[in-house]
Protein backbone atom coordinates (compact mmCIF):
# COMPACT_ATOMS: atom_id res chain seq x y z
CA UNK A 1 0.00 0.00 0.00
CA UNK A 2 1.42 3.38 -1.06
CA UNK A 3 1.42 6.18 1.50
CA UNK A 4 -0.19 8.45 -1.11
CA UNK A 5 -3.13 6.12 -1.78
CA UNK A 6 -6.33 8.09 -1.91
CA UNK A 7 -4.69 11.51 -2.15
CA UNK A 8 -5.53 12.01 -5.82
CA UNK A 9 -9.10 10.89 -5.28
CA UNK A 10 -9.48 13.15 -2.26
CA UNK A 11 -8.16 16.18 -4.16
CA UNK A 12 -10.42 15.50 -7.16
CA UNK A 13 -13.44 15.16 -4.88
CA UNK A 14 -12.75 18.17 -2.63
CA UNK A 15 -10.83 20.49 -4.98
CA UNK A 16 -13.69 22.93 -5.59
CA UNK A 17 -14.49 23.32 -1.89
CA UNK A 18 -10.83 23.81 -1.01
CA UNK A 19 -10.45 26.29 -3.87
CA UNK A 20 -13.37 28.31 -2.52
CA UNK A 21 -11.68 28.50 0.88
CA UNK A 22 -8.42 29.63 -0.73
CA UNK A 23 -10.29 32.24 -2.78
CA UNK A 24 -12.06 33.57 0.31
CA UNK A 25 -8.66 34.06 1.92
CA UNK A 26 -6.89 35.69 -1.02
CA UNK A 27 -9.66 37.40 -2.96
CA UNK A 28 -7.87 36.49 -6.19
CA UNK A 29 -8.32 33.34 -8.27
CA UNK A 30 -4.66 33.06 -9.30
CA UNK A 31 -3.37 33.56 -5.77
CA UNK A 32 -5.94 31.06 -4.52
CA UNK A 33 -4.63 28.47 -6.99
CA UNK A 34 -1.06 29.14 -5.85
CA UNK A 35 -2.05 28.90 -2.21
CA UNK A 36 -3.91 25.62 -2.66
CA UNK A 37 -1.11 24.11 -4.72
CA UNK A 38 1.47 25.14 -2.14
CA UNK A 39 -0.51 23.57 0.69
CA UNK A 40 -1.31 20.37 -1.20
CA UNK A 41 2.35 19.91 -2.10
CA UNK A 42 3.17 19.98 1.62
CA UNK A 43 0.22 17.86 2.74
CA UNK A 44 0.98 15.01 0.33
CA UNK A 45 4.07 14.17 2.40
CA UNK A 46 1.85 13.45 5.42
CA UNK A 47 -1.08 11.96 3.55
CA UNK A 48 -0.75 8.44 4.90
CA UNK A 49 -1.00 9.62 8.51
CA UNK A 50 -3.74 12.17 7.75
CA UNK A 51 -5.93 9.72 5.88
CA UNK A 52 -5.50 7.10 8.60
CA UNK A 53 -5.69 9.21 11.77
CA UNK A 54 -7.62 12.38 11.20
CA UNK A 55 -9.80 14.66 9.20
CA UNK A 56 -7.65 15.58 6.18
CA UNK A 57 -10.00 18.30 4.93
CA UNK A 58 -9.94 20.14 8.24
CA UNK A 59 -6.14 19.83 8.32
CA UNK A 60 -5.86 21.22 4.77
CA UNK A 61 -8.19 24.14 5.54
CA UNK A 62 -6.13 25.00 8.63
CA UNK A 63 -2.99 24.72 6.50
CA UNK A 64 -4.50 27.13 3.95
CA UNK A 65 -5.08 29.71 6.67
CA UNK A 66 -1.60 29.23 8.11
CA UNK A 67 0.12 29.43 4.72
CA UNK A 68 -1.85 32.54 3.74
CA UNK A 69 -0.95 34.20 7.04
CA UNK A 70 2.69 33.34 6.43
CA UNK A 71 2.53 34.86 2.94
CA UNK A 72 0.97 38.05 4.30
CA UNK A 73 3.77 38.45 6.85
CA UNK A 74 6.51 38.24 4.22
CA UNK A 75 7.92 41.56 3.08
CA UNK A 76 6.56 42.35 -0.35
CA UNK A 77 8.48 44.19 -3.05
CA UNK A 78 7.27 47.63 -3.94
CA UNK A 79 4.52 47.67 -6.52
CA UNK A 80 4.85 50.06 -9.46
CA UNK A 81 2.05 52.57 -9.83
CA UNK A 82 0.96 54.76 -12.71
CA UNK A 83 -0.20 57.46 -10.30
CA UNK A 84 2.08 59.87 -8.47
CA UNK A 85 1.24 60.86 -4.96
CA UNK A 86 0.63 64.52 -4.17
CA UNK A 87 2.63 64.53 -0.98
CA UNK A 88 6.37 64.61 -1.18
CA UNK A 89 8.98 64.66 1.51
CA UNK A 90 8.38 67.44 4.02
CA UNK A 91 11.24 69.68 5.08
CA UNK A 92 11.13 71.55 8.31
CA UNK A 93 13.24 74.63 8.97
CA UNK A 94 15.94 72.69 10.84
CA UNK A 95 16.44 70.37 7.85
CA UNK A 96 16.73 73.28 5.43
CA UNK A 97 19.18 75.05 7.77
CA UNK A 98 21.35 71.91 7.89
CA UNK A 99 21.38 71.66 4.10
CA UNK A 100 22.37 75.31 3.67
CA UNK A 101 25.09 74.98 6.34
CA UNK A 102 26.56 71.86 4.71
CA UNK A 103 26.61 73.57 1.31
CA UNK A 104 28.38 76.62 2.79
CA UNK A 105 30.93 74.43 4.61
CA UNK A 106 31.61 72.49 1.42
CA UNK A 107 32.61 75.74 -0.31
CA UNK A 108 35.26 76.57 2.32
CA UNK A 109 38.82 75.60 1.55
CA UNK A 110 40.29 72.95 3.87
CA UNK A 111 41.96 74.61 6.88
CA UNK A 112 40.52 78.10 6.19
CA UNK A 113 38.34 78.03 9.33
CA UNK A 114 41.40 78.25 11.65
Tell me about this structure.
With 114 residues, the protein is mostly helical. It has helices at residues 7-26, 29-43, 47-53, 56-73, 93-107. The chain has five helices and no strands.
Helix vs. strand class: mainly alpha
Largest sheet data? none
Low-confidence segments, ≥5 residues, pLDDT <50?
Answer: none
Instruction: Output the radius of gyration.
Output: 28 Å
Considering DSSP H and I runs of 4 or more, what fraction of the residues is helical? 55-70%
Distance between the termini: 89 Å
Mean pLDDT: 84
Shape: elongated
Range of strand content: under 5%
DSSP helix count?
5
Number of strands: 0
Order of helices and strands: HHHHH
Tag the structure with descriptive keywords.
mainly alpha, 114 residues, single chain
Topology:
Blueprint: H1 7-26, H2 29-43, H3 47-53, H4 56-73, H5 93-107
Helix pairs in contact: 1-2, 1-4, 2-4
Give me a quick take on this structure:
The protein has five helices and no strands. The chain has helices at residues 7-26, 29-43, 47-53, 56-73, 93-107. It is elongated, with a radius of gyration of 28 Å.
